[in-house]
Design goal:
The chain has 497 residues and is α/β, with parallel strands linked by helices. The chain folds into two domains: 342 residues, Alpha/Beta hydrolase fold, catalytic domain (Rossmann fold), CATH 3.40.50.1820; 128 residues, no CATH class. The protein is 34% helix and 17% strand. Strands 1, 2, 3, 4, 7, 8, 9, 10, 13 and 14 form a ten-stranded mixed beta sheet that branches. A two-stranded antiparallel sheet has the order 5-6.
């Protein structure tokens, strides 16, 4: 692919390579492979490692987005242009797509070992529940992550933000469809974590740019940024059912109750009891506050007096350190079932808050699998550094301002549920899947249910929204029972009219 040349400039801080090689990328590499499933099922597919140009309307290069594309082919090596194509990515902001690919829905998957940390030599196997059975797949690394490259002179302030990020993905998706002649294909987008915020904006933006989506998959979703702001009551409300699920898992509460029934009880108690109590603040009164704290304690396994000291507001860092304090363990954030030794007393709480055993157990294995696959299977040799998470340069400089459609002004903390509702109203044939896990404390399930319910969709549009809740954490696919359940549910979703 031809590159646009620009005058040489000093190295921008966000680049991890010299500025004069910022957009020098390896030539594309492809290979035909075969996926083997249960009962003798086989799929012949082409996999291609390449970069997609992201260009402004006038043609100026913004960057080159790394992609791994998997397309099913026939015996003659030809793809079916009527087959769906799904563009998939992770979130962050600042995360590459590798977990969704080699952890979740791609044709190759790192074999997991329950809640145990994986060895460095964990096996890479054919994924028994790959989405490739239902759709071709294109995994995209956001600019500034993975092997994606930002062009010299490109303004990262226009890229690293809610709207700029969605714009770059819309341009990359359009470029891929054009280069691969796939305009006849039903188009889906699949986002995880912050990727669901990206999805929400793309649902609207792609439609405005003449690309009519068939379906959207939201895995471990976050729609309203207010819920993660310090002091927000919706933050504490969203956490409560997830805390209760973790407490039950570790035997601190809910014993003898079905796990889904327990979670439903916690969801209902959050809305019927905790929400009114939090809204009243110090007007609640000591007697009522004590009563609520006692009930709260019965759900989350932490003493009522401790809950009272925090006025019914238990943040995630506190819960993770308190639940298993007697065992000198801390539980995970992405998946609360994972645990590790408690941090050293000399380490600051702010450091410990970003330590996550559920991330440590798996993340490096996925990156190593990607590197081995590209080098050994495709003979594609990327740069020495692959950035699975570029949080310092991307996440910490992120522009969260976003103008929800029809509001007339940008909000510093976006609520992209408004974008979702707008896209559904404009395109009532669009179908939406929302997937969440009981043990996900990064993007809590109660908040997503609340956010969508506040859009007051018509009964007809509500039928286009499919809800899936599993006994898993943030990366749902790491849990093998969930992997199989999600595979069956996604097949039904993709074949839904």
């Amino acid at each position: 692919m031809a590159e646009e040349t620009t005058p040489k400039k000093e190295k921008p801080e966000f680049l991890s390579v010299p500025a004069n090689t910022a957009t020098e990328v390896p030539a594309p590499a492809s290979k035909q492979l075969t996926w083997h499933g249960a009962n003798g099922e086989e799929l012949r597919y082409n996999v291609t490692a390449a970069h997609v140009d992201v260009r402004e309307d006038a043609g100026a290069l913004i960057g080159k987005m790394f992609s791994l594309s998997y397309t099913v082919v026939d015996e003659d090596g030809k793809h079916n242009s009527a087959r769906p194509v799904t563009f998939a990515y992770n979130g962050g902001p600042g995360s590459a797509s590798v977990p969704v690919n080699f952890g979740g829905i791609g044709p190759k998957r790192v074999a997991t070992d329950g809640l145990n940390h994986l060895r460095a030599d964990a096996a890479l196997e054919d994924n028994p529940e790959t989405l490739l059975r239902d759709t071709d797949l294109v995994f995209l690394d956001a600019l500034g992550t993975g092997w994606s490259r930002i062009a010299e002179g490109a303004d990262t302030k226009k890229i690293f933000g809610v709207d700029g990020d969605a714009d770059s993905f819309a341009r990359a998706i359009c470029s891929w469809l054009e280069e691969n002649r796939r305009w006849s294909s039903p188009v889906y987008i699949f986002g995880e974590s912050y990727g669901t915020i990206r999805n929400a904006v793309l649902m609207r933006l792609l439609g405005e740019r003449g690309i009519k989506l068939t379906g959207v998959v939201m895995l471990s979703a976050l729609f309203d940024g207010v819920q993660i702001l310090p002091g927000s009551d919706t933050y504490y409300l969203g956490m409560m059912p997830t805390y209760s699920a973790a407490a039950q898992f570790f035997g601190k509460a809910g014993q003898g109750v079905d796990v889904d029934e327990w979670f439903d009880r916690a969801m209902a108690w959050t809305e019927d009891v905790l929400a009114p109590a939090l809204l009243r603040g110090d007007r609640l009164g000591e007697e009522r506050e004590r009563a609520v704290a006692e009930e709260f304690s019965s759900f989350i396994g932490i003493p009522a007096d401790f809950i009272l000291e925090h006025h019914l507001r238990i943040d995630l860092g506190t819960f993770r350190s308190e639940l298993l304090r007697a065992e000198k363990r801390v539980c995970g954030r992405f998946d609360m079932r994972f645990t590790s030794d408690a941090p050293s007393p000399v380490q600051e709480p702010s450091f410990s808050a970003y330590e996550d055993p559920s991330d440590d157990a798996l993340d490096a294995n996925w990156v190593m699998a990607l590197r081995r696959f590209c080098a050994e299977e495709l003979d594609y040799h990327g740069p020495a550094i692959y950035l699975p998470g570029n949080y310092e340069k991307v996440n910490m400089t992120w522009n969260w301002a976003h103008e929800e459609p029809g509001t007339g002004w940008p909000a510093d903390s976006p609520n992209v549920a408004v974008d979702i509702a707008t896209a559904l109203r404009r395109n009532p044939t669009l179908k939406l899947a929302i997937i969440g896990g009981r043990y996900d404390a990064a993007t809590t399930f109660w908040n997503v249910v609340h956010d969508i319910s506040c859009q007051f969709l018509s009964p007809e549009l509500k039928k286009r929204v499919c809800w899936y809740r599993y006994g898993c954490g943030h990366m749902a696919y790491t849990d093998v029972p969930t992997l199989h359940a999600m595979g069956a549910d996604m097949h039904d979703f993709y074949t839904m009219r």
